[in-house]
Amino acid sequence: MSQVYAARRTRLRERCNAGGSAAALVSRPANVRYLAGAAPHGAVLLLGKTEDLLVCSVPPEDRPTEGRPDDSLPVRALPGPGGDPAVAATGLAAAQGAESLATEDHHLTVVRHRAMRSVAPRLRLTDLGQAVEQLRVVKDEEEISCLRIGAEIADQALGELLESILVGRTERHLALELERRLVDHGADGPAFPTSVGTGPNSGRRGHRPTDRRVEEGDFLSVCLGATYRGYRCEIGRTFVIGTSPADWQIELYDLVFSAQRAGREALAPGAACRDVDRAARQALDSAGYAEHLPALTGHGVGLEIDEDPQLAPAAMGKLDACVPVTVEPGVHLPGRGGVRIDDTLVVRPEADGGPELLTITTKELLAL
């Protein structure tokens, strides 16, 4: 992996040089991990004029779930407590003879930025912008393999839950059990707080589990994800509890299922992000549910659960091959509940079989 991380740093350095900066300071944790292999708490990565350094408050601990620093990358720990690695790295950049330093202004606080200026007043600080995030959009096969394993873990945890007795249990209890099962099956942990919604809470995006108990006839919507070696995937499914679904539940589910399938089928290299969103949204709009739809149909995933690209009505740009995204349309009807169906897929060309589905738990409307 050392060669992989070195190649990523080289690509970033080329962008910095093209922008007139001989050095860069990366502080956003996911970006540090992408370029260095690990991101110990508070650590920053200096792409220096003469040497790259991972600057940490304390020496990194050997925790496989948090990644391991690239063996070829020197690590510099601060000599005492209370220091700021970003400020220290700015001083190191100046000591290496850099005249300018590109920084992630979207991540740094004003106070931190001022402290960096004060330690090297002659060093010109420029904005690196979203350069690293842009590099992270297209994944290599090693990254996709981590996402694939995470999806398998999430599928397994969800499948086991569906085989258990659900009536009478609380949303909070079910969410905690799912997160425990994720870890039991090898995940670093949940990719995000697990959402379990029952009855009137079902289908609500980002719903935080409550003490409401599962009742017969409820819609039960579950959204969970696993983190594996830092990479995060997502799956969401909706079921009916204990009885045959009512007519309105079948109708709503079929509509959301059709929308989700249309979104999945629209994924292709070169497809406009807004067109994928439109494909998924069209059937639901036509059925009169426009006001009940989420703001976006999906988003990229990777070292963070919500990355670029965004699949939304006003989204700019087009999809590339090897970009993992979610497709997650849903409808929530206040006071009644709703449906959400959510998959993680990798954009692939038609010659390679089209979009690769990572989350394979059935999307049939099951009565549990």
From TrEMBL:
Residues 60-73 have a biased composition (Basic and acidic residues). It comes from the Bacteria. Residues 8-138 form the Creatinase N-terminal domain. InterPro entries: Creatin/AminoP/Spt16_N, Creatinase/aminopeptidase-like, Creatinase_N, Pept_M24, Peptidase_M24B. Pfam families: Creatinase_N, Peptidase_M24. Residues 146-348 form the Peptidase M24 domain. Residues 59-82, 187-211 are annotated as: Disordered. This is X-Pro dipeptidase.
